[in-house]
Write a structure and sequence with these properties.
The complex is a heterodimer of chains A (about 110) and B (about 120). Chain A is mainly β and about 110 residues long. Chain A contains no helices and nine strands. Chain A has strands spanning about 10, 20-25, 30-35, 45, 60-65, 70-75, 85-90, 95-100, 100-105. The chains are: A mainly beta (about 110), B mainly beta (about 120).
Chain lengths: ~110, ~120
């Protein structure tokens, strides 16, 4: 079965840039989405189709996907961005596969 | 505005059954693929099932195949998940998710299923 690997945690200072990676075999050939989940809340889509941002999601969230690695970048990180972030890959063979999640801490 | 509201969760004994519902509003329900995704306490997201808008194409994760049945009633704008032969490892919050543009664009608030004796 297809697997996605994320770092368990990422720490970032306020107003700095946080980068969260997601690795998988030939991931660059698949669509990747990213979800933000805060404690006690449902996941919220922040990036889809590798680099598209849903309406209402701040411009500081961006995504890329190439080779075996997708990256979610949070520029000018704010305290409200502290959350768990999950990548998800999609294609006809993998369907919805999630990474294990990355806890982003804003120090 | 899109709303997805799950219900039907609760405490059930191992080997028991439960039926979850997801009431959808704010969009043309019958034209969208829908998913169930679950999350065990303190754990990550796990995909469970996918169902086409007309209800004729269904996929399940291996972990629930043969035990769970997904269905929908487009006249009632409702998605269902019939869960049989429940196991302790099925304990989780179950989310109803709408699929659009190859992603899960809207998620419900979830309903908690606890399988325990």
């Amino acid at each position: 079965s297809y697997e996605l690997t994320q770092p368990p945690s990422v720490s970032v200072s306020p107003r700095q840039t946080a980068s969260i990676t997601c690795s998988g075999d030939q991931l660059g050939k698949k669509y990747v989405s990213w979800y933000q989940q805060k404690p006690g809340q449902s996941p919220v889509l922040v990036i889809y189709q590798n680099n598209r941002r849903p309406s209402g999601i701040p411009e500081r969230f961006s995504g890329s996907n190439s080779g075996n690695t997708a990256t979610l970048t949070i520029s000018g990180t704010q305290a409200i961005d502290e959350a768990d972030y999950y990548c998800q890959a999609w294609d006809s063979s993998t369907l919805f596969v999630f990474g294990a999640g990355t806890k982003v801490t804003v120090l | 505005e899109v709303h997805l509201v799950e219900s039907g969760g609760g405490l059930v004994q191992p080997g028991g059954s439960l039926r979850l519902s997801c009431a959808a509003s704010g969009f043309t329900f019958g034209t969208y693929w829908m998913h169930w995704v679950r999350q065990a306490p303190g754990k990550g997201l796990v995909w469970v099932s996918r169902l086409r808008g007309d209800g004729r194409y269904i996929l399940y994760a291996d972990s629930v195949k043969g035990r769970f049945t997904v269905s929908r009633d487009n006249a009632k704008n409702t998605l269902y998940l019939q869960m049989d032969s429940l196991r302790p490892e099925d304990t989780a919050v179950y989310y109803c998710v709408r699929e659009d543009d190859w992603t899960g664009d809207y998620w419900g608030r979830g309903t908690l299923v606890t399988v325990s004796s």
